Amino acid sequence: MNTVAIVRDPIYLKHSNGPMHPEGPERLVTIDRMLSEFPLKAQLGDVPPRDATFEELAWIHEEAYIRRIESTKYSRFTVLDPDTSATSDSYAAAIRAAGGMMEATEAVLSGRFPAAFAFVRPPGHHAEAGQAKGFCLFNNIAIAAAYALRRHDLKRVLIVDWDVHHGNGTMHSFYDTKEVLYFSAHQYPHYPGTGRIDEIGWNQGQGYTINIPLYGGQGDQDYLYIFREILVPVAREYAPELILVSAGFDTHRNDPLAGMAMTSGAYGRLTGILRELTEECCPGRLALALEGGYDHNALTEGVAAVLRNLIDDRTRERDDVAGEETTTVAADGETRLVVQEVRRLLSPYWKSLSIEAGA
Ligand SMILES: [Zn+2]
Predict the structure, then answer these.
(1) Any residues with CB less than 8 A from the CB of 68 and at least 6 apart, and which?
(2) How far is the CA of 124 from the centre of ligand 1 (A)?
């Protein structure tokens, strides 16, 4: 049995994009309800979040933009982009969401916990340096990665983004550096429109952005296949000192905002793969940030599957067996073609993706 750090705060419920918006506070209310009945809840350790400082936000965001978001606290409601808004409490929630993910990262880097999950809102991976976007104000995971690089002097951070949407803001934050390897599998073409297969990074960062664009309809076997064929070999070669996850649960087949076909159990199996990678590369240094996920049952079942895998070794063994059984069902033809193309584009940067290395 392992203990997992979790980050929660009532302020996260005070941010709203307006009534009837899919990214609402009820998402965290349902997760909280699930956690209060979670059979393994004795293994969860609350880590209190803190507010990100201006300096920390400015690692990723433009100063004028930070002030613009701060100014929303003086209005009852501010529309920031066609689907992203702020109430007078949103700035307070957003700086604590970024600070919460930094504390989750600190909890694993300090060795206090072997894994952490920050249940924060607003989510972060669409937030650009100077633009709120896609329900996101500040880029929580990018700020946490910058924190690890700057405050802990790490040189290699892996960010795995399994949210169904591409994390444009995260990708752009680290597009020209090899200090962060950004890996995303996402529906494409779809919101936000970035994440083409040939967006592989720039200058020093060339080869350190990996995009797996998928048409939609892909399920458990496709994601497991992609993780095993691309993520695992590249991550082993990269040897990250920390693994961060943009954990969105909108790849679930019941999600109302996207068209993937994943089941809840698959989130546990993907977590198992990441846990194994963490043990191999950077023991005890795995931290997840909540991103999307808009079907409340899918969201809570997915979160529970992740936590069960992180906490309970027997669950993990079962997940591994189920994963093996799932991948004997072949990934679909399109997924195989995309994986082939990613190999072709990225093999100049990664020996493990060269055709000879491939099975
Ligand atoms: Zn999403």
Answers:
(1) none
(2) 10
Domains of the chain: 4-353 (3.40.800.20)
Q: Nearest CA to 136 among 103, 172, 104, 160?
A: 172
Q: Could you tell me which residues come within 8 angstroms of residue 113 by beta carbon, excluding any fewer than 6 positions away?
A: 3, 4, 5, 45, 47, 107, 284
The Cα 243–Cα 275 span in angstroms is 9
Tell me which of 125, 126, 165, 296 is the catalytic residue.
126
Read off the pLDDT of residues 319-331 as tens digits, 9 standing for 90 and up.
888 888 876 667 8
Question: What residues have their beta carbon closer than 5 A to ion ligand 1?
Answer: 163, 165, 248, 250, 292
Residues 6+ apart with CB under 8 A from 134: 81, 83, 84, 126, 165, 168, 191, 192
How many other C-beta atoms lie within 10 A of the C-beta of residue 37? 9
296 is catalytic: no
Secondary structure class of 48 (helix, strand, coil)? coil
In this structure, what are the phi and psi dihedrals at residue 136, rounded to the nearest 5 degrees?
-115, 140
Exposed (0-12), middle (13-18) or buried (19+): which is 188, by Cβ within 10 Å?
A: buried
Name the token pair of 234: 């590249």
pLDDT in tens, 45-85: 999 999 999 999 999 999 999 999 999 999 999 999 999 99
Residue 66 contacts by C-beta under 8 Å, 6 or more apart in sequence?
54, 57, 58
